[in-house]
Amino acid sequence: MEQKNLKEEILRISGVNPRKCMKCGKCSGTCPSYEEMDFHPHQFVYMVESGDIEPLMASGSLYRCLTCFACVERCPRQVEPAKLIEAVRLTVIRQQGQNHLKPDQLPGMLDEDMPQQALVSAMRKFAK
Amino acid sequence: MQRIGVFVCWCGSNIAATVDVKAVAEALGKEPGVVYFEDYQYMCSEEGQNKIKNAIRDYKLTGAVICSCSPRMHENTFRKAAAAAGINSFMVEIANIREQCSWIHKDKVSATEKAIILGRAAIAKVHLNAPLTAGESPVVKRALVIGGGIAGIQTALDIADAGFEVDIVEKKPTIGGKMSQIDKTFPTLDCAACILTPKMVDVAQNEKIRIFSYSEVDAVKGFVGNFKVSIRRKARFVDEVKCTGCGLCTEKCPQKKVPNEFNLGLDQRRAIYIPFAQAVPKVATIDADYCTMLKTGKCGVCSKVCAAGAIDYKQKDTFVEEEYGAIVVATGFNPIELKKYDEFAYSQSPDVITSLEFERITNAAGPTGGTLLRPSDGTHPKKIVFVQCVGSREDGGGCGKTYCSKICCMYTAKHAMLTREKYPDTEVYVFYIDVRTPGKSFDEFYRRAVEEYGVHYVKGMVGKVSPENGKLMVRASDLIEGKQLNIDADLVVLAAAIEPDQSARPLATMLTASMDTNDFFTEAHPKLRPVESPTAGIFLSGCCQGPKDIPETVAQASACAAKVIGLLAKDKLTCNACVAHSSEMLCNGCSTCEKVCPYGAISYEEKEFRMPDRTTRVRRVASVNPAVCQGCGACTVACPSGAMDLHGFSNRQIMAEVDAICK
What per-residue confidence (pLDDT) applies to B450? Predict the structure, then answer.
């Protein structure tokens, strides 16, 4: 996909307007996965706005986001960074051959202690 | 012999914690002449003042020493109390045992000893005090406003509205100032000319206001209430009364190659000109530096075409002497020179411009008729880079200013927004260090530029601009993304720092008004007296006091007018009672005092004196005008024969204090 379309697609999926960001850094300040990410929530917002999206798609940071929505909750300008990260992630797994988890893999992963929510969440994160 | 009362204040624990106040009162009670002593928690309170009043009456005191805070704080309070009890208020002396003793010492024993010494000195002085009466001086009920920008205009209108006469002195041919050059005003984006020019017309039509355009203040004498000002009316070679402002001369003048300063040199005007269509007064002016007639004597076209016969090539500078009760400084600002900022290529490329030049380019009355075009080739710029903080917030050692120029963030947001609105295909970048937009509806305005108009705000500074093949290569840093940017811009706009007008420094010297290191006028108190100079009778309006935008300038201008009106409403001002006086018998007529007096209060006169042998002799002696003298004491120090002395601070009194301290 072309850079410009890519940006528009991400904005469409997420419904986020990154221009509202005033670069205060509160999202990254609150993020529990900060240490494990190479690109932090505020950088997602900024880089999507400037169309610099490919490095984000290639980054493992996409899968480190816990979708805890702390950043969404605390953003003073209601930018909702987690939704943007989610949209970038969706853009990646919607590409051909990027389906990382198929339903028939699930029985093998089952484990008595694992809550069913985790499975649903994993499907959402890794599958088309 | 005086009968002196000593009153020692605790100031709560401010003094009492470090100074043994009882010991001080008792020790001072033993001094000669002291007939009463007392200490109290708050001497300045109603109760404390009553103690002083009662003691003065009951013990028939002729003088009082108050050991308390600085005389700056409560001298007036205690003088009033003494006067209410029936003694002359100048028979009260303050021994400052707070700021100069308790607050700066820790050891109670030595602090107490020092407090006693300070009290003793004050007692020694009171012994030599004599009752003084302050004179009065009349107030000339007219004001002078120096500078005819929006600050000067607003102040003049408000003073005139209160019924006082005002003169505006403006060095340019028209009033209006910087605001007349601006296109739109933030945050409401109304057209600057549309809101300014009606005010200019109001000034012209107001019967109480006179405009001295193309004029400068030449000399200032006198003091608050009684300033004498000499105004130089520069020769404009056009009779202001006869000229109708038809503008025919400005069309026919053959000298077309004069840089037009109103458009910041972006286009050219004639040698005879009217700065802009709504100029007030609308009178032509001949630029003597370019006029062929004035330089070679051969031309005279303007004189031939002028139906009113207003052209006068022989006009000379004239001087007007006027008296004023108050002077308002409204000398305004200028953007700094950018020659030293070569990294931005300002002097290398005509497409690198200042924000004020950008205003002219986007103004409908400007050189491009309001169409945004590059100065170099007249094409539409497709990519514009704005650079903020150029010359602001720099270390004192550099070529810039240490302060924030305050207005740049908002006008840059305005420029960026207007560009995107008029030309949506233009890409606009703003490089900032911080975005500072405090003010009503200001931050919302800046956010609108980002969110609605899609202006790219980049945190970081432009490092270098290099002109290459008709483009401007801008290298900058993006600190948030942590990378270097290279942008091929068509136009670069620099938000140059602002500085006080060059005329401010010599004017401050003339007015004996103080300035800071940046040449901004200092206010009497940064919070509580922000529109007055520490020099009585001098008031500050607009950017001469510090960078400010239009709403703030207008607010300050009206505040300034209120202060001026308060002064002019008085019929008389109480003078300083502690003025200098000269002993005619000691004066040797050397004129030293006259030369050092900053207020022009001393004059010399020839006077006849009877000699012991009954002959008469004429001698030249100094005489002080007590209404003008401010009691600074410079003359008393300079006088070689000891003839000059200051009431209330005589040489004898000061020596007595020194002796008491050294006893």
Answer: 95
Asked if B142 and B164 touch (Cβ cutoff 8 Å), the reply is yes
B454 vs A46: CB contact, 8 Å cut-off? no
Q: How many domains does chain A have?
A: 2
Domains and CATH numbers, chain B: 4-128 (3.40.50), 142-332+515-568 (3.50.50.60), 334-499 (3.50.50.60), 580-647 (3.30.70.3270)
Q: Enter the pTM of the model.
A: 0.83
Binning chain A into helix, strand and coil, the percentages to the nearest 5 are 60, 0, 40
pLDDT mean over B587-608:
90
| pLDDT confidence tier of residue B135, bands split at 50, 70 and 90 | confident
Which residue is closest to B459 within chain A, CA to CA? A23
Contacts of A47 in chain B (CB under 8 A): 481
Tell me, what's the ipTM? 0.79
Give yes or no: residues A91 and A117 share one domain.
no
A23 at B interface, C-beta within 8 A = yes
Instruction: Please check whether residues A52 and A11 belong to one and the same domain.
Output: yes
* Pairing, β B456-459 against β B92-96: unpaired
CB contact under 8 A, B451 and A43: no
Cis peptide before B640 (omega within 30 of 0): no
Based on the fold, state whether residues A17 and A77 are members of the same structural domain: yes
Q: Do A125 and A73 share a structural domain?
A: no
The secondary structure of B120-160 as a DSSP string is HHHHHHHHH-------EEE---EEEEE--SHHHHHHHHHHH
